[in-house]
Design a protein that fits this description.
Blueprint: H1 2-7, H2 10-16, H3 18-28, H4 34-58, H5 60-66, H6 93-114, H7 117-134, H8 142-161, H9 167-192, H10 194-199, H11 205-229, H12 242-266, H13 271-281, H14 283-297
Helix pairs in contact: 2-4, 3-8, 3-14, 4-6, 4-7, 6-7, 7-8, 8-9, 9-11, 9-13, 11-12, 12-13, 12-14
């Protein structure tokens, strides 16, 4: 099963579950029923598993070109030697396609039970994920699409607990997630992969804009994440006071701003970009832990 889990980047996918979990608790101000909670976790796992597999299925040709000169070390949350198993011929394309299809069907069925509107979100995210991969050699602006794709999971979580979310609150949460994905995940991941991306003439932010501008974009995006996090209590019925604000500010400073500033100052390829990616991957988990504490103690 290792090649299949590597195809879906399962370690990273499990960490990704923290973001919709945090958003749902923040929005609802409490835990949903245990039936809804368990079904939602399973649905989210299935959706992330399918989406990450889709990325490799669509991008397999480019991945094979990249790895002609070897594969980089990756990040601690994606450090498996089997990263991109299709490109390494560790898994057949047909097997990967069946794996993707099975998990997509599971995600669609669970979404229909939770809220049929989520099906539109899931299908839209899958289409955008495919477009994102196909734009690798076309435009670095594809990074904006990645922000929309990553926002789809939390959007689905909100639709589980609130079928008719207020647009203003929804926009606040989506913008916060969008900036986190751009500054903490997408640009650092591309920065870590610059050697491979150069081989295929990929259009990424670090390659097109250079390390100075890329570093500045990362710093600005994550600075906006930390700033917006201070306004997230407006999206919650919970009385989140100064203790919450201090906690969320501390999480942002430690997991986002500090590694982002180090990357900006050094403009190093690889190591510090991977370090930022790793730290940012744990940011949603830190937020989930904080909001869970407030929900339990309310």
């Amino acid at each position: 099963m290792k090649p299949f889990f590597a195809l879906s980047r399962t370690t990273h996918a499990v960490l990704d579950l923290a973001m919709p979990g945090f958003v749902a608790l923040l929005w609802l101000g409490g835990f949903p029923s245990w039936q809804v909670l368990l079904l939602s976790i399973f649905a989210a796992f299935a959706a992330y598993t399918a989406t990450y597999a889709l990325n490799d299925l669509v991008g397999v040709a480019a991945d094979k070109e990249k790895f002609v000169g070897g594969i980089n070390a990756g990040y601690s949350v994606e450090a498996s030697e089997l990263r991109h198993p299709l490109a390494q011929n560790a898994l057949s394309y047909r097997s990967g396609l069946l794996w993707f299809g099975a998990w997509l069907i599971v995600a669609l069925v669970c979404s229909y039970i939770l809220n049929p509107m989520i099906i539109l979100v899931l299908v839209g995210a899958s289409v955008l994920a495919a477009i994102y991969c196909m734009l690798l050699k076309v435009s670095f602006l594809r990074t904006l699409i990645s922000g929309l794709v990553k926002s789809s999971g939390p959007l689905a979580a909100i639709l589980v607990v609130d079928p008719h979310p207020a647009p203003q609150r929804l926009l606040l949460v989506i913008l916060w997630i969008f900036c986190w994905e751009i500054g903490g995940q997408n640009i650092p991941a591309d920065w870590n992969d610059t050697a491979e991306d150069k081989r295929v003439n990929a259009k990424t932010v670090p390659l097109q804009l250079g390390p100075q501008k890329a570093g500045l974009l990362v710093l600005l995006a994550l600075g906006l994440v930390v700033l917006l996090s201070l306004f997230l209590p407006l999206a919650s019925p919970l009385p989140l006071g100064w203790v919450y604000l201090v906690a969320t500010l501390a999480a942002g400073a430690a997991l986002l701003l500090r590694p982002a500033y180090r990357l900006y100052r050094s403009r190093e390829e690889g190591r510090l970009a991977a370090e930022l990616f790793d730290h940012a991957s744990y940011y949603p988990l830190a937020q989930l832990a904080i909001i869970t504490l407030f929900v339990v103690l309310k």
